[in-house]
Amino acid sequence: MHNDIKEILFTTEQIEAKAAELAKQLEIDYADKKPILLGLLKGSIPFIGDLMKHMNIPVQIEFMDVSSYHGGTTSSGQVKILKDLDTSVENRHIIIVEDIVDTGFTLDKVIALLKHRGAASVEVVTMLDKPEGRVVVMEPKYIGFNIPKAFVVGYGLDYDEYYRNLPYVGILKEEVYMN
Ligand code: XMP
Ligand code: MG
Fold first, then answer.
1. Are 37 and 8 spatial neighbours (Cβ–Cβ below 8 Å)?
2. Residue ranges of the Phosphoribosyltransferase domain (predicted)?
C-alpha cells in the first residue's frame, strides 16, 4: 500500500467485478439504443475502461472535461468546461460515466447542458457515491459503491493530479493535504 494511504476501501478485483455487473445492466437497458458512454476526464478513465469492455452492444465512447475542484479537497460549486464534446448529442441516449459524485454540482451542470443540446435521455453511472456530501438533488441511476464523507484517491481519483494510477480506491491520510 502507498505510504500516503490510510486505508484501502476497494480493491481492483472488487471494482472490476462491480463494473462488470453494472455493464451487464447497461447492456440490458440500452440494448437497442446505441448510447454514448460519456466519460468525464480524467477521473473516469479506469472505470470507463472496465465498463466498456463488458458492454457487448453498439456503444460510442466520448469524453468531456469539466472541473469544479481547484487542487483542493472541497467543491467550489463553479463548474467550468475545460474540454467539450466534439460530437452531437441530439436525440442520443447519454450515459455519463463519473468517478465519484459528491455535492452533485458537476453532474447537475453537465446533465442540464446535454438536455439543453437535445439529448434523448441522460443517466449517470458512477463508481462511487458520497451521498452525505450532496448539495443539489442528484440521484445517479447506476452506482458502484457508497462511501462515507472522506477524501479518497486512486482508480482515477486524484489529489492535486497525483494518485490516479493507484490500482485501488483508498482514503488519503489527512496530513498529506493538511500541510
Ligand atoms: P461534485 O461535488 O461536483 O464532485 O459532485 C464531483 C467531482 O469532484 C471530485 N471529487 C473527488 N475527487 N476524491 C477525489 O479525488 C474525492 O473524495 C472526491 N470527491 C469529489 C471528482 O473529480 C468528481 O468528479
Ligand atoms: Mg471528476
1. no
2. 10-159
Distance 68 CA to ligand 1 centre (A): 8
What does the pLDDT average to over 97-105? 95
Helices (H), 7-54: 12-29, 45-52
Ligand 1 cavity residues, CB under 6 Å: 43, 68-69, 75, 98-106, 151-153, 157-159
Report yes or no on 171 lying in a domain.
no
Please say whether the beta carbons of 1 and 160 come within 8 A: no
Range of the domain at 133: 13-147
Query: CATH number, domain at 102?
Result: 3.40.50.2020
* pLDDT tens string 119-144: 999 999 999 999 999 999 999 999 99
Provide mean pLDDT across the span 67-85: 73
* Residue to substitute in 69, 70, 128, 149 for testing ligand 1 pocket (most ligand atoms within 8 angstroms of CB): 69
- Any idea how long the chain is? 179
158 found inside a domain: no
Give the active site residues.
102
Residue 68 domain flag: yes
